[in-house]
Amino acid sequence: MSILKLKSFNGNVMAENKTLDAVKKCLRDFPLEARELYLNKTVPCLEQPLSPLEFYREWIGPNKPCVIRNAFGHWPALSKWNPSHLREVVGSKVISVAVTPNGYADAVNRDRFVMPEERLMTFSSLLDVVEGKVESRGVFYVQKQCSNLTEELPELTGDVETHIPWMSEALGKLPDAVNFWLGEAGAVTSMHKDHYENLYCVITGEKHFILLPPSDRPFIPYEHYQPAVYRQREDGDFDVVDVADSDKVPWIPLDPLKPDLELYPDYSLARPLHVTVKAGEMLYLPSLWFHHVRQSHGCIAVNFWYDMEYDIKYNYFQLVESLAGAVGPL
Hints:
Blueprint: H1 3-37, E1 45-46, H2 52-60, E2 66-69, H3 77-80, H4 83-90, E3 94-100, E4 104-105, E5 107-109, E6 112-115, E7 117-122, H5 123-130, E8 139-142, H6 148-152, H7 165-171, E9 177-183, E10 188-192, E11 196-204, E12 206-212, E13 223-232, E14 238-242, E15 249-251, E16 273-278, E17 281-285, E18 290-295, E19 300-307, H8 312-327
Parallel strand pairs: 1-2, 4-10, 6-13
Antiparallel strand pairs: 2-17, 3-7, 3-8, 5-6, 8-9, 9-19, 10-18, 11-17, 11-19, 12-16, 12-18, 13-14, 13-15
């Protein structure tokens, strides 16, 4: 290579590195500006629901979470949904239950993205496990997110509402799904995001959320994994079985309960919010917010998924996500 070509090559490399450094700086500064401009340092609590217009202006539009009290105190479920009542009303119903060896369904396990074994069992059989009346290897969790309340347990819908009227009016639509959740304390939902405006209502027990705003995406690692499922053997142990002929799944390998900052140092710049939602309380979890969820043993909840608007905010998030994935560690 001639001296002129070598100088030109080195100049191009230096210019590319300078551009890359500038993009990385923008991605580091972007979440900080969001915190200064509009994000709260904690999750606020409202003592009652707002009007549809007020809620849209103050929470949905700005894409900020909040806890809402006294939002569904009229639901019979709050006083009726105990094991005895549930056995009587839906005990014989066959439902889909996620079973895992460690409580982590839809989560990274070494070099695999592993989904739970979906086991069909009667509701009473599930309650036997949760109440400790039978011994069973694994962690059990009703978490099927396909409107399982209305599809699998319609007998219970009279004890709740199948939509939240003020939210439906605020968004101009009905929920895409109404989901029922019940499981053991060991059941954990790994960090992820959803394309829904989510109203999460705790009926009994409590849920513990770790939340991160979409603007923190540059600090959150993603990797691609071979999908697999758990399969329990006759001896009680679990195998991890690859899903054949499937594309790799992008997922977050980091556990916010014990983040490996040596492996993912950028996460030290994130500012997670911690919030506990108790029985009778509702969490508004905005679209695209990253969340990790734990629960008290036997906690029961119902959530409402309203499809998000794929507008300019979504476009901006996609841009940030593309840039964060392209430039690598900051």
